[in-house]
Amino acid sequence: MSDRIRVGLIGCGFYARNHLHAWRDLKDAGADTVGVCDVDAAKARAAGDAFGVPWFTDAAILIDQAKPDLVDITTRMDSHQALARLAAEHGVAAVVQKPFAPSYDDCVAIVETARRHGTFLAVHENFRFQTPMCRVAAVIASGAIGEPGWGRLSFRTGFDVYRTQPYFYSEERLAILDVGIHVLDLARVFLGEVERISCETQRRNPKVRAEDTATMLLRHVSGAVSVVECTYESRRIPDSFPETLLEIEGSAGSIVVGRGERMTVTSQGLSWEEAIGSPLLAWTSRPWHVSQESVLHANAHMLECLKAGRPAATSGEDNLKTYALVEAAYEAAATGRAVRPKAWSPGPG
Ligand SMILES: NC(=O)c1ccc[n+]([C@@H]2O[C@H](COP(=O)([O-])OP(=O)(O)OC[C@H]3O[C@@H](n4cnc5c(N)ncnc54)[C@H](O)[C@@H]3O)[C@@H](O)[C@H]2O)c1
After folding, report:
1. Which ligand 1 atom lies nearest to the CA of residue 167?
2. What is the DSSP letter of 166?
């Protein structure tokens, strides 16, 4: 792969702006945005004009004419499989926004198609690229808290997410698939793979079709136990949107991340507190900043991995393990039993 990567973005909706800003900020790192596409011409034109790149209304034409090395698929999940297949068939690398696809089997099909064509495939699972979460991973890796044995990871908000994402009202699966998926991914990163999961869901906002609250209990392969919580129906002031708060206890210490990205680490009886707050990027603003800056970090990671010819930390195959937790959580909630997540292996050849 050359030192410069031609990026085409597909899906110019609400969240795509963050991706486009991030790719522009990555110009010096080798990213060239060469075109954008949306089936809605007005959205495609607006994004093309704002970022000074050609715009298209058909992803096949974007690939044919703008000749991207990488397509960044920022549409909603129902179109991911067809767009990722299109990319793979043209030998183009793809990064797909979360949720990967509407079902686990669809996710597997996307992974298998990319494998067959030998193309780079990653999922834009960005929470683990948030500065506070990177710090947590680094503290655990340093050994400062010993072996992590227990955790609580929590995303609780009453922020009006329905204003920017009105489609949330009618989703068949909401809290776990939209935001629980991020927190489950963090639980995997911090405490390791999961042996079984149980889950209770609630629909506390009557205007919403699906669950808006989930409380999950995970037994990790290491023996660690974690509680993973998510809700869009919290009534607390101040609201912590869009921060993930957490506590992790290890054999030699603990980590607590509280509101305002404040992290407290206890190690061998010593304690210190540090404010993590990274400087705001020019195009971000609170409260979205921690989410927005993670897009820059995620895209930077994708770019680096693609150039180096190695899989992303959030490769399609890695994300199957997170998605399997989502499916297992829904099954656990429906049956009232603890469920073992599915596992996928590439099979012979
Ligand atoms: N990682 C995060 O923190 C985060 C935050 C918000 C949204 N998201 C994800 O981003 C994705 C997009 O969400 P959104 O709220 O921006 O949605 P949106 O509906 O605002 O935008 C999606 C856009 O894709 C376009 N589109 C659909 N099919 C297309 C196709 N075949 N070709 C070209 N364009 C097509 C639509 O016209 C629309 O403009 C979702 O998967 C969502 O879960 C992630």
Report:
1. 19
2. G
98 lines ligand 1 (CB under 6 A): yes
> Is the CA virtual torsion 187, 191, 196, 201 positive or negative?
negative
Task: Output the CA angle 143-147-153, nearest 5 degrees.
Answer: 100
How far is C-alpha 175 from the chain's CA centre? 14
Tell me the CA distances in angstroms from 70 to 53, 122, 162, 286, 301, one per residue in order: 15, 11, 31, 30, 13
User: Hey, whose CA ends up nearest to atom 41 of ligand 1?
Assistant: 76
Integer CA distances (angstroms), 235 to 71, 171, 180, 247, in order: 39, 22, 18, 21
108-117 pLDDT tens trace: 999 999 999 9
Q: Yes or no: say if 333 and 199 are a contact pair by the CB < 8 Å rule.
A: yes
> Which CA distances in Å does 210 have to 128, 133, 189?
26, 28, 27
Q: Is 57 in the pocket of ligand 1 (CB under 6 A)?
A: no
pLDDT in tens, 137-167: 999 999 989 999 999 999 999 999 999 999 9
* Sheet strands (E) in the chain: 5-10, 31-37, 55-56, 70-73, 93-97, 121-124, 148-156, 194-202, 213-220, 225-231, 245-250, 253-258, 262-267, 270-275
Q: How far is CA 60 from CA 30, 38, 84, in A?
A: 24, 11, 11
Q: Closest Cα partner for 23 from 305, 313, 295? A: 295
Q: Could you give the domains of the chain? A: 5-119 (3.40.50.720), 128-275+322-335 (3.30.360.10)
- Of 289, 248, 297, which is closest to residue 26 (Cα–Cα)? 297
